[in-house]
Amino acid sequence: MKDAAPQTIYLSDYTPFGFVVEDVHLTFRLAPTATRVISRIRFKPNPETAGRTFFLHGEDMTLVWAKIDGAPIEPEVTPEGVRYDVPDAPFVWEAEVEISPATNTALEGLYMSSGMYCTQCEAEGFRKITYYPDRPDVMSIFTVRIEGDEPVKLSNGNPTAKGDGWAEWHDPWPKPAYLFALVAGDLVAHPDRFTTMSGKDVELNIWVRPGDEHKCAFAMESLKKSMTWDEEVYGREYDLDIFNIVAVDDFNMGAMENKGLNIFNSSAVLASPETSTDANFERIEAIIAHEYFHNWTGNRITCRDWFQLCLKEGLTVYRDSQFTSDMRSAPVKRISDVIDLRARQFPEDQGPLSHPVRPESFQEINNFYTATVYEKGAEVIGMLKRLVGDEAYYKALDLYFTRHDGDAATIEDWLKVFEDATGRDLAQFKRWYSQSGTPRLQVSEAWDDSDGQYTLTFRQQTPPTPGQDEKAPQVIPIAVGLLNPNGDEVMPTTVLEMTESEQSFSFEGLASRPTPSILRGFSAPVILEREVSREERAFLLAHDTDDFNRWEAGRDLARDCLVAMIRDGAAPDDLWLDGLEQVVRDDTLDPAFRALMLSGPTQSELAQTLFERGTTPDPDAIWAATERLRDHMATRWKLWLPDLMEEMQVYAPYVPDADQAGKRALGSALLALKTRLDKGVSAQRQFDSADNMTLQLSALSQLIRSGTGAPAVQQFHEQWKDDRLVMDKWFGLQVMASDPRDTVEVTHALTQHPAFDWTNPNRFRAVMGALAGHHAGFHRRDGAGYDLLADWLIKLDDKNPQTTARMCSAFQTWTRYDSERKALMRKALQRIKAKPDLSRDTDEMVTRILG
Ligand code: ZN
């Protein structure tokens, strides 16, 4: 049931719960529409607070009976929970409730997916399972009994006993309710074992539906690598006898770190060369690592309240990116992360949804699992590490783990361990957690020939964001290197620590005026504003010793070239294309890096750049310019394309490692150019001979783009119609590769396909996410893209508010566009807002976006 007026929760209102939960016993009698949950919970007054209001959260359930200390009671029941006057002394709460997992389409709480019972409790889903103080600072020890005919019955912790039709689990580690999990169904295990650094033997299982067993090996290898890495790099060991992972088809997000029982979207576990792309393999490896790393950063040390979400998410994203850098290529990972940050976090931070890494208020916490909390949260940790140095970073982390093990902690606790470990004052640094918006960093330079002194002057300024008109200066680590005119490094990477609004740094004793390489490795999540000549950028593209900035120089040239083409109809910039050609053909460089060089800014990134430079983006002009540029590149490079494509062929058996994946990535970027010349002949050849999904899908993409894809689309469908994850690709690609004039019609036609199961989040996102991501197609001048997305969001809201609300962010940039498009987007948003019984999730998002 929906509240009349949405309630706002404030960080400043935090108070501890009046009671401590000593332990919890739960019994589940499983039945699809009438599951009974019997709870026995021991409470005692919390000595840390005087408040004694006894309110237990509980939603969408029927109370069968309740008792206190064995005596039946009749508590006051509201749509949000139960209230009762309890003794100011220890007591036992018991209750039985009935819930209906089979009709739970929100995929939060206990629900069913492909005939199997599963749970999702973060952030506030446990309150849909039984009455409980559903807040992360209430931690307790859970014992769970599951009764049902399902052959496999799992919960957190270690298995303690089982018999015919029942199983019992005990988790010795105190945990908040959001980490509770239960799974029951007809599942098969892919088993393995791991010996921890102290010699403890751990049973590992990946549980999947029968038929998917052959798609588990890669995830299992990733898990073992993650366990070893966390021991070696952070000294963190696993702490139970068993670690289970379950793959579920219907899931709102990627995966969930429930203690000892991680639950995954099947797209984040299942992989085989025939059905998964290189990108899928890399994503699976990263998500397995991410959830495993949460065992320490999230579970052993959890969050006091949901405002502290970045405490576990920012840190865990940072840790999984370190892991991927170590397993694969560090520069390629850094560049990919920055591309992702600019694509997802920058628009958020510069629009109506802008919020601090640690938000100060919310209506629906599910709406704050954002790129800002996760990815900017991880950037903040990277900056901290850059400022204090590696050694001090690991010293602070050791202190964090010893001091806060078992705690529900805060950002204050986190920063305090760094202050105590390093003696630094982090009061100003803390603004990264409270101040929203992307800082802009302006640079000017001065050269004194007489004494060889070179000076860089920086000015920082953050535009106002919703609720924050005034911005104070932040601590910005600026990694700088200096190159001499030959391209030799005369000053290696040095981290300048900027703390003022305007600040100068001088470098002495230089023989000639240097070329600066600024913000190396993207040392802070800011927008660098610097007037640089094309010649200087081309020089950095050719010579920068920092891989990230070398890529960035190429990207800047590409952006400038495209902006000139879009704004003034300029011709493509040959200076840049010559520099790019050098890099792309340089066989001493990693093919993955060369592929990133060639990939160029996306259309939405160009829209973002135009907006940052004060121009209203025109999606049709952006599309036309990128097409013109790609045609120009293909023609210009037609003589050497075939040879380089041949060099990128992999003849060894498929493995999803960084080396092979890099070659395929460059190969497919070249195929995209080649297809512009041969109208799909090479793509068809690749499609026909492909023995792995990476090559098959990149070929299919080019065939569709060339307008000759119809037979291949059919053939692909025939081959893969029984594989849900591959069919998600089939759905998504047809939209992604469509001509912008047809995107809406293609999307609409796919929604009429019998396999368009729109209640499945993966399928819905495959189609509607692709529509929202097709810049020129979505922003079609007549608003048909906006209307189609709005229609489907309105439809999905009744079933799945979480996924609906997330996808509303497709409209977050609406104010940047021309007045016609703006009006059309506003109308679509208002139409969503006017839907009767709109969920709290979607209502909050649409209201914030409208501003
Ligand atoms: Zn996480």
Query: Which stretches of 5+ consecutive residues score pLDDT under 50?
Result: none
- Give the strand content: 15-25%
Helical segment count:
27
The fold-level CATH name of the largest domain is Immunoglobulin-like
By CATH, the superfamily of the largest domain comes out as tricorn interacting facor f3 domain
Q: Give the tally of structural domains.
A: 6
The end-to-end span amounts to 25 Å
Which geometry do the CA atoms define? globular
Q: Name the average pLDDT.
A: 98
Number of strands: 31
Cofactors, ions and other ligands in the entry: zinc ion
Going by helix content, strand content and strand pairing, the class is alpha+beta
- Biggest β-sheet, characterized? 8 strands, mixed
The helix content is 40-55%
Gyration radius over CA = 28 Å
* CATH class group of the largest domain: Mainly Beta
- Going across the major beta sheet, what is the strand order? 6-5-9-3-2-12-15-14
Going by CATH, the architecture of the largest domain would be Sandwich
Detailed description of the structure:
The chain is of the alpha+beta class and 851 residues long. It has six domains: 9-186, Immunoglobulin-like, CATH 2.60.40; 302-434, Neutral Protease Domain 2 (Neutral Protease, domain 2), CATH 1.10.390.10; 447-459 and 474-524, Sandwich (Immunoglobulin-like); 530-633, no CATH class; 637-712; 721-851, Peptidase M1, alanyl aminopeptidase, C-terminal domain (Zincin-like fold, Alpha Horseshoe), CATH 1.25.50.10. It is built from 27 helices and 31 strands. The strands form nine sheets. The chain has an eight-stranded mixed β-sheet, with no helix packed on it. The chain has a five-stranded mixed β-sheet with strand order 17-18-19-21-20, covered by helices on one side. It has a four-stranded mixed β-sheet with strand order 29-26-25-31, with no helix packed on it. A hairpin with a 5-residue loop joins β2 (19-29) and β3. α5 packs across α6 (390-404). The longest helix has 22 residues, at 547-568.
